[in-house]
Amino acid sequence: MPGATAPQADVIQSAIATHGQRPGALLPILHAIQDGLGYIPGDAIAAIAQALNQSRAEVAGVLSFYHHFRTRPPGNAVVQICRAEACQAVGARQLESHARQRLGTDYHATSQEARISLEPVYCLGNCACGPSVRIGDEVYGRVSPAVFDALLEALDSDVVVVQ
Amino acid sequence: MATRIYVPSDTSARSLGADAVATAIEREAMARKIDLELVRNGSRGLFWLEPLLEVETPAGRVAYGPVRAEDVGELFETGLCSGESRHALFQGRPEDIPFLRKQQRLTFSRVGLGDPLSLGNYVELAGFRGLSRALTMAGEDIVRWVTESGLRGRGGAAFPTGIKWQTVLDTPSPQKYVVCNADEGDSGTFADRLVMECDPYLLIEGMIIAGVAVGATQGYIYLRSEYPLALRVMNEAIARAYAAGYLGEGIRGTSYRFDLEVRLGAGAYICGEETALLESLEGKRGMVRVKPPLPAVKGLFGQPTVVNNVLSLAAVPFILDRGPAAYADSGMGRSRGTLPVQLAGNIARGGLVELAFGATLRELLYDFGGGSHSGRPLRAVQVGGPLGAYLPESQWDTPLDYEAFAAMGAMLGHGGIVAFDDTVDLRQQARFAMEFCAVESCGKCTPCRIGSTRGVEVIDQLATAADREANLTLLQELCETMTDGSLCAMGGMTPYPVLSALRHFPEDFTVGGEPCGSREPV
Predict the structure, then answer these.
(1) In this complex, which of B15, B227, B284 lies closest to A129 when CB atoms are compared?
(2) CATH (residue range B331-421)
(3) Which residue of A65, A78, A108, A119 to mutate against B (max B Cβ within 10 Å)?
(4) Which of B83, B348, B506, B511 has a beta carbon 3.0–4.6 Å from B57's, enabling a disulfide?
(5) What parts of chain B have a pLDDT lower than 70?
(6) Which residues contact B405 (CB under 8 A, 6 or more apart)?
(7) Domains of chain A
(8) What is the pLDDT of residue A160?
(9) Predicted ipTM?
């Protein structure tokens, strides 16, 4: 694949080889690539399209439909803040403003200094214990602005594996 | 004899520090040379007490909660291992906690008792009894039992499950599917997650029974990507169920076959709508299909497909084990059986409450929920997720019943109840409903795709004096168009929260009121 680095191409080819024959293979392939690389590089689109006998437009259309899939590399950690109603009822809006200010970034962007990507999420299923935040695969409950800051500090000392 | 201590391992318990508590217990036991057997059980769904630690004593299990890691030393010091009551976190026998004692747990009877992945535990606690019976019955009879139980789809639409199954059974095809909708996207709901994380074999059993009943040999669980722990637990449970002969070729020595796998969604609320879910499973954009044809006739890959919510499928093993009457005995009117209610948001005692239909919102909010978490008066309740109405106190005596809720322009949906205290700004909530619809609309139909964006704009304009009456009329008309002209519930029901907020909380829409987002809790 032109443009893809060797390890990238390996991840893409192995995702296609592992899942390509399954019925409805496209989402499993995209997940496998994002799990391996943290995002889905543009070069993956042509490779997947060819393997699944679809047009590149079809693959790109699916990729862009789903909020979960990223087309650019995330920062060192991805921090998701739940924006849904149950969390709003216990201060999620205040937490959102605090997080934006503290990280100096808005949603769908990565902070310059700490390289933390901030993303909204609509419900982590932790609705009796909000506000909720997900970092990597861990969910945190009752996240006040002070708890949020403590989580960020813990991130500084211990790099969280990006999902 | 080893001291057996249970520390829950579900997402909510862990989000409140259960893993650190477990580590502290191991460390403390080692330092005290106590022979410890640590069990990571599921959560009982009493989330305000999480992490809720339990210790096995000769007189039964005794609970302590909510426990923080720093409490553990003191707990051991005050007789944790013998279940003594000296510590302030002592809660007594878990079954005696009123929140749990007053429930009727049919579907959730096993949740929180043991290691969710232990097949032995599951079988010991009446697991796979429903399946054993189903394997001796004709498909037609299984479907009839489900119909007679009165079970209606717990995902929100409340369609009779038995009728759906009958349609799939009656539609001839060499390949049929059972698809579990585990895209639990509604805010305020976590019952599906609890089943999958704390009693995964229950869902597997329900799906196998559905497959045997309608003649489907392949099942898919469409799970949302926001539930990483549920994914791990379900995958492991499926692997163990295969190894034990419950899945695959020749289920438990019979000639039935059923294969099952989990497919991960990718963060799209609309994929909770059954036809969008099927598109997504097929590897496409999650675009809503026009019905008919119904998925029961032409579903996944064009084949007859049962699409059921996790809770519907999880109710089936009880029905097959105990008979349809045992389930239908609970409930009111046409709402039979139990509803797993989820108390969420600004509530003192949040968690899972499985009750027969017919209890009122007020009982749930106060008797179970204990009022607000903040200590301030409750003001509004949203029932049924982001497309559910905001209900004022005057409506809190309505019984939980599909028809009673429909009669007041609301819906029970998936049973999520989100409580708000008096700091809530209903204009802001109405605006959010439109904003959410704009973000999550699949874009197939215009009222939903464009209407939601226009809705945000009109609600913003309502904050100003200019053209106020005209804007109110416009908002009403826009909602009417969305209700009548949308293909699915996304656009069709977004007006519920908007219009209920406007109707019941008009004071939040007054001109010169504080702009959206300015109201801070005290």
Answers:
(1) B15
(2) 3.10.20.600
(3) A65
(4) B83
(5) 512-522
(6) B383, B384, B398, B411, B412
(7) 6-65 (no CATH), 77-157 (3.40.30.10)
(8) 46
(9) 0.95
